Amino acid sequence: MQPAEVAPTAPGARPPSRATGFLRALAPFGWVALYAGVSAALHFAVVSVPWDTDTAYHVAVGRLIREHGILRSFPWTPFSWLADHYADKELLFHLLFVPLAGMPWITAAKVVGMVSGTALLTTLYLVLRAEGVRLAGLWALVPLLASDVFVFRFALVRPHVLSIALAVVVLWAAVRGRFAVLAAACALYPWIYVAWVLPIVLVAIAEVARLASGERPRLATAAWAMGGIAAGLALHPNAANLVRFTWIVLVDVLLRGAWGGSALLEMGREFEPFSPGQWAQWLLGASAMALAALALAWRDRRAGPVPLAFALTAAAFGVLTLRTARFAEYFVPLSAAALALAVQRLRWRLAPVVAPVAVAVALALYSGPALAETLRGLASRPDRLPDAIGAALRREIPEGAQVFTCDWDRTGDLLLALPGRRFVVALDPTLFLVRDPELYRLWFEIPRRPPSGVSTVIRERFGAQFVVCFWNGRFRRFFDQIAFEPDVRTALLTEDWNVYELRPPAASTEPARP
After folding, report:
1. Whole-angstrom Cα distance, residue 163 to residue 156?
2. 180 Cβ contact partners less than 8 Å away, ≥ 6 residues apart
3. 83: Cα within 13 Å, side-chain hemisphere
4. Of the candidates 113, 267, 92, 111, the residue with the CA atom closest to the CA atom of residue 193
5. Three-class SS string for 211-261?
6. CB atoms within 10 A of CB 152
7. Is there a contact between 227 and 180 (Cβ–Cβ < 8 Å)?
8. C-alpha 264: how far from its chain's center?
9. How confident is the model over 115-166, as pLDDT tens digits?
10. Nearest to 88 by CA among 310, 304, 264, 237
């Protein structure tokens, strides 16, 4: 390793003092502390209850790992493909919850959300700083001003936040030839996020940028990336199932379910595309940054491939966002990073200093009202399954009971409130469809178009002793029908939950429980 070059001191100028050098060395710690404060403020001072229902599932899995060790099966959802082909595609994320298992689940989720958010902002800062970007610490905060969509996704306690950080590291390491860093980041991907094939795409974009910049492509980059992924998969405790699981997610969930518009799969609004009006309201700032970065990076591509690699990647995610809204979580921060890298090459000497301030002010003016609305929404989320309701459910539903649910997205809440019980499906309905298409179709139809004798169908086909459904106006006919069928006892009715006990016919003559 060669010693670092020392910048010459201008005639008559004082060399940097020891105190100044010490303060500069402390600067990264100050920025990291700021990012931790921003993330903590968002999760602890703004967010009331985790918005996304998947969060409860992740907390529940962390608690199950604490109790049972690394999971090899998932008997708590016996109708899911995961039941006997378990693959924890977010194992490291779930391990973050293990030492927090004794906390209230909402507090544990906020702690992990703070850690994940800090990691993402810090990663952006460190990569920009490594590239010599002036005011890199401020640029790392720009995504939070650019779009309320990104702020909303940033506030969700889900592993995609860590995936964005890893994507930034993979892209930078690939284009810079930092092979050890690249391999390590790629090895982590199968442990953190289901999209562990994403590094291959990022490496391809990095090599395209190198080629466009007049440099020769390197086969070693792809070899190190694929070697890292292979190592990560080989070390994963659910390796064989993880490969199959990823195929299911990419083909059945994304291509056939979300993009194919399957009538039997309701995947959530995050898989839907943005309308033109939503683009203008939420992503115009990010689009302007991406286009400006792409133009500047292409003009100066001969000076080096890093800005062009980030600009091309941002543009690629922008195109994907036209089809699926959830890719905005990558599009926004990569657009900000790409612009930060591109403006460093502007001929105006003050551009690297003025640009981040001007961009931040312009974005705040553009997205300020939408950001304020999003923050108010995050602060007003009610707890749909408070402790009192959870205690009532535990009194009614014994451990080991099979529970029929009308939908899949609230199973995480139920796994937390009713440990030791079994549910129809969790995490993703596609995993039920893959395991038993005929039974899945029956489960899907029952709450929407209930057949005659629906309680008997549920009891015999699903082996369920209880029905627990989150209130949904579309299921009103089902609720009205099952409540008045013989051998059904309404166990609990609240504003949000309908709970019924399905008793065998032989027990129908017994006195009703108080």
Report:
1. 13
2. none
3. 17
4. 92
5. HHCCCCCCHHHHHHHHHHHHHHHHHCCCHHHHHHHHHHHHHHHHHHHHCCC
6. 21
7. no
8. 24
9. 999 999 999 999 999 999 999 999 999 999 999 999 999 999 999 999 999 9
10. 237
Is the distance from CB of 403 to CB of 78 less than 8 angstroms? no
Residue type for position 157: V
Q: In whole angstroms, how large is the CA radius of gyration of the chain?
A: 26
Distance in angstroms (rounded) separating the CA atoms of residues 103 and 380 = 22
| Residue 408 in tokens | 């899949």
User: Does the pTM of the predicted model rise above 0.85?
Assistant: yes
Cα distance between residue 308 and residue 293, in whole Å:
8
What is the number of other CB atoms lying within 10 angstroms of the CB of residue 498? 21
Instruction: Give the C-alpha separation, 355 to 293, whole Å.
Output: 12
The residue behind tokens 């299911």 is 248
| Sheet with strand 488-493: strands edge to edge | 422-423, 402-404, 466-470, 497-502, 488-493
Domain boundaries, the chain: 27-377, 387-507
Low-confidence ranges of the chain (pLDDT < 70): 1-23, 251-271, 427, 506-514
